[in-house]
Amino acid sequence: MRTTLDIESDVLAAAKEIARQQHTSVGKVISQLVRRTLIGAAAPQTVVRQTPAVPGFEPFPARDVIVTNELIDRLRDAEGI
């Protein structure tokens, strides 16, 4: 079914990234997430591999920005890399 929704840009960016990773459409990703929410199912957990800390290295603080391939490409273009 086709409809128009007002989706905030950060949510859409996250849905696009999930769709890219799963090789599916953004519409299907959003439908799956909404369906899980409506039936109260937990979202699938992403496996996060813990890497050992490197002595003397402090990770950067979170910036509340979703890092997508498009963002990385824009930063590379801006830096001329």
Can you offer a commentary on this structure?
This protein is mainly alpha-helical and 81 residues long. The chain contains 3 helices and no strands. The chain starts with 8 loop residues before the first helix and ends with a helix. This is Antitoxin.
* Total count of helical runs of at least 4 residues: 3
How much strand content do the residues show? Answer: under 5%
Report the uncertain regions: none
Rg value: 17 Å
**Order of H and E elements:** HHH
Q: What class would the helix/strand composition place it in?
A: mainly alpha
Q: If you average the pLDDT, what whole number results?
A: 81
- Topology, number of strands: 0
The major sheet is characterized as: none
Termini separation comes to: 42 Å
Classify the helix fraction into a percent range.
Answer: 40-55%
Inertia-based shape: extended
